[in-house]
Amino acid sequence: MRPLLLVLCGLLLSHHTPLYSLATDTLSRGRSFAGDERLVSGNGKFALGFFPMGTSNSSSNLLNWYLGIWFNKVPKLTPVWTANRDHPISAPASPELIVDGDGNLVVLAQGTSTIIWSTRGRANITANDTVALLLDSGNLVLRSSSNSSRTFWESFDYPTDTMLPGAKIGWNKVTGLNRYTVSRKNSIDLSSGLYSSKMDLDGVGRMSWNSSAVYWSSGKWNGRFFSSIPEMSAGSSLANFTLVNNDQEVYFTYTILSENAITINVLDVNGQMQLRAWAGQDWFTINSQPRYQCDVYAVCGPFTVCTSNADPFCNCMKGFSARSPGDWEIENRRDGCIRNTPLNCGGDDGNKTGMTDKFYSMPGIRLPQNGTSIPNASSANECAQVCLRNCSCTAYTYGKDGCSIWHDELLNVATDDNGEMIYLRLAAKELESRKGNKNRIIIGVAIGASITTLAGFVFLVVIWRRRNKKWSSRKTDNDQDGVGIIAFRYVDLQYATKKFSEKLGTGGFGSVFKGWLSDSVAIAVKRLDGAQQGEKQFRAEVNSIGIIQHINLVKLIGFCCEGDRRLLVYEHMPNGSLDSHIFQSHGAILNWTIRYQIALGVARGLGYLHHGCRYCIIHCDIKPQNILLDTSFVPKIADFGMAKFLGRDFSRVLTTMRGTIGYLAPEWISGTAVTSKVDVYSYGMVLLEIISGKRNSPKHSSSDEDRADYYPVQVAHKLLDGDILSLVDANLHGDVNTEEVERVCKVACWCIQDSEFDRPTMAEVVQFLEGICEPEMPPVPRLLDAIAGGTPTTGL
Ligand SMILES: *[C@@H]1O[C@H](CO)[C@@H](O)[C@H](O)[C@H]1NC(C)=O
Ligand SMILES: *[C@@H]1O[C@H](CO)[C@@H](O)[C@H](O)[C@H]1NC(C)=O
Ligand SMILES: *[C@@H]1O[C@H](CO)[C@@H](O)[C@H](O)[C@H]1NC(C)=O
Ligand SMILES: *[C@@H]1O[C@H](CO)[C@@H](O)[C@H](O)[C@H]1NC(C)=O
Ligand SMILES: *[C@@H]1O[C@H](CO)[C@@H](O)[C@H](O)[C@H]1NC(C)=O
Ligand SMILES: *[C@@H]1O[C@H](CO)[C@@H](O)[C@H](O)[C@H]1NC(C)=O
Ligand SMILES: *[C@@H]1O[C@H](CO)[C@@H](O)[C@H](O)[C@H]1NC(C)=O
Ligand SMILES: *[C@@H]1O[C@H](CO)[C@@H](O)[C@H](O)[C@H]1NC(C)=O
Ligand SMILES: *[C@@H]1O[C@H](CO)[C@@H](O)[C@H](O)[C@H]1NC(C)=O
Ligand SMILES: *[C@@H]1O[C@H](CO)[C@@H](O)[C@H](O)[C@H]1NC(C)=O
């Protein structure tokens, strides 16, 4: 398969180095084109022509021809519209496009009169002077040449899997036309797949599988964004999103405010709607909906376990193998997996030879839908017996909701940290193998490639157990680690905080209150909400900052763990968090020296987390809100609720996306394993905010200036121009150390590079800021630049 794909790619590339073109955007009546000829839109951005593509038939390498539109200047062929996706023209016949005598657009196999595709039946042509025109937006229109407002047909009305800026997705209520996108069948075949994304008449976008199972809904439009995509509001400085719902139409559309940006919205072959930008060398996914790959209905097919962010994210369940491995390679997994050994199904023979089917337990699982509840099974064993009695039963679970069993195919099974245990029915033979292997197999199935996650988890458990033992006594001051964490009683904390009366703030997972210990030490008490989530965060936090100490990390004094109450006690930081100082126009302004000290302190704290402890700890949520300031404005990193541990020998961890929009490194969104460089990226974003005194993503604003100058990109450009003082917070009135400003700008710009390999380590950042090394001039971060649509980068 691989060599074939390479051959195809080679062909496509050579085909698409523009040899010559009609160099026109218009095809008039009676004219035709074939072969390498093409129309190019007036702005040179789009091309229309024929292109070849392989099919999914792995035993033959015939090429098919399609009429389509692609980005003329993007070297990687990206069809944004295809006329005949489900009716390819098989080579060697070569196709021809004409504007026929009746004014319709028609694709013929050359030399024959076989019509492969045409606009007949869709276009109502009432003029004898039609022309086909490729517009600057990438829309192919068929219209009257004498009256340009008489459009008979347009490609935007018949989208394939891509929505271009300016296109509409939704209904024309008058004509009944519904425009929606349909995914392609697999990664090398453009024909229609099973996923579709539609705008319904109620103004809510929905994605569905095989036109039946709805697996995602956009929620209601609130004038600026859909309720399930709040990140759209952050993007409003880059794009203009619109929902129109009136008597004639209901549709969604968007425009990108920068002319230069190349973006598309694609319903991916795996059922996710992805907003992608061209970042110089490849497409980069900015946003995916649904956020987690495993939330796409049946994405891995039956009898699989899906793990979002793992690579590969689909794995067969134990005792199963891929039904068609060739299809898996080209991202078509709808056939899923099949049993290696058929079930015995309680046949008499089986009973005699002890070969009845057995169950295999899989922990941490998001259960499949549509289980049958068995209310009268009152134990796990009875539940298992009910399942064994029916040959079509394939799995059961016995949890707090009692017994449920599943028949036939198991769909939509995914790993889930908070998930349940499911028992999978397998032929006894599958489970005969050495018992000692059991745990390893479970892990292999359930966690797939994310071995590093596991290492972190085991470590947590070990620490947790060890701590638990110690904490059984009330006070553990002066233990050999010198950590000295106090286990508080709830009543003590109630007293210390005057019944939680003085609230300092509300963060993720809980609220923070001020209190006093008897020796008049001020404390901050964090009370975690939500039983399950709170527990996770509590453990993460105690485990990470409970075992480490550094001047630039907030100190954990103690905790309380009574019943389902979870509280954490920290030293109190009189100056609050960094955001309350840098984003405020009133009150005292932090002077440059203090800002520089904060930048350096945070870098040291992070450097210690990444390199200084026995285990590398990735904080995962660096932002100004999580940087606290003590009386002398020494910064302390706080809020370790999302931190990830990495074992000594691991540098990467696969984990669900965590963090805060605006500070998220690109690799989070692309779903690959992350390293400590995600913290470096977030740190870079924070540095920029420290310099400018403004948030990087401006609140929704209509002024043109704000839009054109996305601050992080502006910094990169101004650095190159040597004009950095204009970047500094105006409130400082130029009272800064120019050399330091330049250094901080350079460091920040290196930290926010697209590729983690281009970013410095925190240890290097510390060296730069201490002036031990001098950073080189950073390149403009391509991705941010592409999104912001800055001027094309000058040879960088
Ligand atoms: C592939 O295509 C060839 C010719 O079109 C056909 O004979 C063959 O059966 C196909 N193979 C598969 C697996 O579909
Ligand atoms: C075509 O357009 C004409 C005039 O605009 C209209 O009368 C006719 O009903 C249309 N036909 C179809 C099939 O839409
Ligand atoms: C097109 O129709 C107009 C009248 O509607 C007529 O004057 C003209 O000659 C026609 N042109 C052709 C090429 O048939
Ligand atoms: C062009 O077409 C539109 C809509 O069909 C019509 O309203 C308008 O009068 C036409 N203009 C001319 C100059 O024919
Ligand atoms: C999709 O739905 C149709 C009926 O609507 C059904 O015949 C077909 O088998 C379904 N496809 C799959 C893959 O389940
Ligand atoms: C956004 O789009 C709508 C409709 O397309 C338009 O009316 C509005 O002026 C646009 N806003 C901006 C800021 O471009
Ligand atoms: C299987 O064996 C069990 C005891 O080992 C017995 O109770 C049961 O009736 C047998 N079932 C069949 C179908 O023979
Ligand atoms: C599964 O359950 C959902 C509701 O939970 C229902 O809408 C759907 O029709 C069910 N599907 C089948 C195949 O029974
Ligand atoms: C549960 O009830 C059904 C009929 O309602 C019966 O056939 C089955 O044996 C019962 N199962 C148990 C475990 O009691
Ligand atoms: C097994 O369960 C299926 C689905 O509930 C049911 O249709 C079938 O009749 C059952 N078979 C037996 C032997 O109970």
Automatic annotation (TrEMBL):
<dbReference type="InterPro" id="IPR024171">
    <property type="entry name" value="SRK-like_kinase"/>
</dbReference>
<feature type="domain" description="Bulb-type lectin">
    <location>
        <begin position="24"/>
        <end position="155"/>
    </location>
</feature>
<dbReference type="InterPro" id="IPR011009">
    <property type="entry name" value="Kinase-like_dom_sf"/>
</dbReference>
<keyword id="KW-1133">Transmembrane helix</keyword>
<keyword id="KW-0245">EGF-like domain</keyword>
<dbReference type="InterPro" id="IPR000719">
    <property type="entry name" value="Prot_kinase_dom"/>
</dbReference>
<keyword id="KW-0325">Glycoprotein</keyword>
<comment type="similarity">
    <text>Belongs to the protein kinase superfamily. Ser/Thr protein kinase family.</text>
</comment>
<keyword id="KW-0472">Membrane</keyword>
<dbReference type="GO" id="GO:0030246">
    <property type="term" value="F:carbohydrate binding"/>
</dbReference>
<dbReference type="GO" id="GO:0016020">
    <property type="term" value="C:membrane"/>
</dbReference>
<keyword id="KW-0430">Lectin</keyword>
<keyword id="KW-0547">Nucleotide-binding</keyword>
<dbReference type="Pfam" id="PF00954">
    <property type="entry name" value="S_locus_glycop"/>
</dbReference>
<dbReference type="InterPro" id="IPR017441">
    <property type="entry name" value="Protein_kinase_ATP_BS"/>
</dbReference>
<dbReference type="GO" id="GO:0106310">
    <property type="term" value="F:protein serine kinase activity"/>
</dbReference>
<feature type="transmembrane region" description="Helical">
    <location>
        <begin position="441"/>
        <end position="464"/>
    </location>
</feature>
<keyword id="KW-1015">Disulfide bond</keyword>
<dbReference type="GO" id="GO:0048544">
    <property type="term" value="P:recognition of pollen"/>
</dbReference>
<feature type="signal peptide">
    <location>
        <begin position="1"/>
        <end position="23"/>
    </location>
</feature>
<feature type="domain" description="Protein kinase">
    <location>
        <begin position="498"/>
        <end position="777"/>
    </location>
</feature>
<keyword id="KW-0808">Transferase</keyword>
<dbReference type="GO" id="GO:0004674">
    <property type="term" value="F:protein serine/threonine kinase activity"/>
</dbReference>
<dbReference type="InterPro" id="IPR001480">
    <property type="entry name" value="Bulb-type_lectin_dom"/>
</dbReference>
<dbReference type="InterPro" id="IPR008271">
    <property type="entry name" value="Ser/Thr_kinase_AS"/>
</dbReference>
<dbReference type="InterPro" id="IPR003609">
    <property type="entry name" value="Pan_app"/>
</dbReference>
<keyword id="KW-0732">Signal</keyword>
<keyword id="KW-0418">Kinase</keyword>
<keyword id="KW-0723">Serine/threonine-protein kinase</keyword>
<keyword id="KW-0067">ATP-binding</keyword>
<protein>
    <recommendedName>
        <fullName>Receptor-like serine/threonine-protein kinase</fullName>
        <ecNumber>2.7.11.1</ecNumber>
    </recommendedName>
</protein>
<dbReference type="GO" id="GO:0051707">
    <property type="term" value="P:response to other organism"/>
</dbReference>
<dbReference type="GO" id="GO:0005524">
    <property type="term" value="F:ATP binding"/>
</dbReference>
<dbReference type="Pfam" id="PF01453">
    <property type="entry name" value="B_lectin"/>
</dbReference>
<dbReference type="Pfam" id="PF08276">
    <property type="entry name" value="PAN_2"/>
</dbReference>
<dbReference type="InterPro" id="IPR000858">
    <property type="entry name" value="S_locus_glycoprot_dom"/>
</dbReference>
<dbReference type="InterPro" id="IPR036426">
    <property type="entry name" value="Bulb-type_lectin_dom_sf"/>
</dbReference>
<keyword id="KW-0675">Receptor</keyword>
<keyword id="KW-0812">Transmembrane</keyword>
<feature type="domain" description="Apple">
    <location>
        <begin position="345"/>
        <end position="427"/>
    </location>
</feature>
<dbReference type="Pfam" id="PF00069">
    <property type="entry name" value="Pkinase"/>
</dbReference>
<feature type="binding site">
    <location>
        <position position="526"/>
    </location>
    <ligand>
        <name>ATP</name>
    </ligand>
</feature>
